[in-house]
Design brief:
- The protein has helices at 7-16, 28-35, 39-51, 70-89, 97-111, 117-133, 138-156, 161-182, 184-209, and strands spanning 25-26, 55-58, 62-65.
- It is mainly alpha-helical.
- Strands 1-3-2 form a three-stranded antiparallel β-sheet.
- A hairpin with a 3-residue loop joins strand 2 (55-58) and strand 3 (62-65).
- Helix 5 runs antiparallel to helix 6 (117-133).
- It starts with 6 loop residues before the first helix and ends with a helix.
């Protein structure tokens, strides 16, 4: 169906929403027909998504949604620590993005009782996007958007959303409280410990799944 949304953005959202599973093949003919676009337009969208790490072209097999590896997880969390912790360490507690952190955290906490892990996970990611917004850098924000999209692919690989999201809502609350009560440097230290714990959780799940 025709859409005003750029095709790459539309496909990107469908991928991180889990409509296309990691490792699944993306059929050119099927998608071109579904979105009523030319194959050349679709291939350009695939090129953009490949640059963002969301799809990969496999010779003789076509384009597939990327399937993250353990090495990808380690690199994603390395990037998160550099971007998020630096943004938080040099932030001001009065920055407008702190309100976004509050709102995202409240949204996550509101959906915990119903165990709506998709909404909780989205709110958690919005919390971390708000942290990056503390840096007032459009370039960092664009870079983090790609990192966060790859992270969502990682989460889609793991069939235990409670373990992925429930503990880290509390940790988000601790990061925000520390920022407001003890300042950005202490909050950044807390966030670094948080991200290291999250990385261990994900790597443990990948190891149990036998992923390389």
């Amino acid at each position: 169906m025709p859409t005003r949304t750029p095709l790459a953005d539309l496909l990107r959202q469908r991928i991180i929403d889990g409509d296309f599973a990691p490792g699944s093949r993306l059929s050119e003919s099927t998608l071109a027909e579904r979105f009523e676009i030319s194959r050349n337009t679709l291939r350009e969208a695939f090129r953009v998504l490949a640059e963002q790490g969301l799809v990969e072209h496999i010779p003789h097999r076509g384009v597939s949604v990327a399937s993250p590896t353990i090495a990808d997880v380690i690199d994603i969390y390395r990037a998160r620590r550099v971007i998020e912790c630096t943004a938080l360490r040099h932030s001001e507690p009065e920055h407008p993005a702190v309100h976004r952190m509050r709102d995202s955290l409240a949204d996550a906490e509101a959906h915990l009782p119903a165990e709506d892990w998709h909404r909780v996970g989205s709110a958690n990611m919005a919390f971390h996007t708000a942290i990056v917004a503390l840096a007032d850098s459009p370039r960092l924000a664009r870079t983090y958007r790609d990192v966060a999209a790859e992270l969502r692919l990682v989460f889609l690989e793991i069939d235990d959303p409670r373990a992925l999201h429930e503990p880290f809502v509390r940790k988000n609350r601790l990061v925000l409280t520390t920022l407001l009560e003890s300042g950005p440097v202490t909050a950044a230290d807390e966030l670094e410990r948080y991200l290291m714990a999250s990385e261990r959780t994900v790597l443990g799940a990948f190891t149990r799944m036998g992923k390389a």
